Amino acid sequence: MxxxxxxxxxxxxxHFDDKEVELRDAGQIGHLSEAIPAKEVIFRRNDPGYxxxxxxxxxxxxxxxxDGAIELEVTDGERRTLRGGEILLLExxxxxxxxxxxxxxxxxxxxxxxxx
Length: 116
Prior knowledge:
CATH class: Mainly Beta
Number of helices: 0
CATH topology: Jelly Rolls
Strand content: over 45%
């Protein structure tokens, strides 16, 4: 399963990385990853005009996009469009961070899984 990771380097610049989470056969229930300890789950709704300027992630967390689409930009200039069903791992808790805006003119829903 592919996850888009955002991280900060030693100079505080943010970058993308594609991370593959290994899944193992768990029989009738499908394929599962190893457990990842989590601290909190937060549900979020964004208004259609969401456009959040440069900011670091407040904590290490997964963001599971449920619907809609965002454009995410990192400080090295790369931009990616992510859609409902995709997963982000935000680890850029220091430095300049990233910029996020809604791509579609509608509400967007997501789930944050805060990591320990």
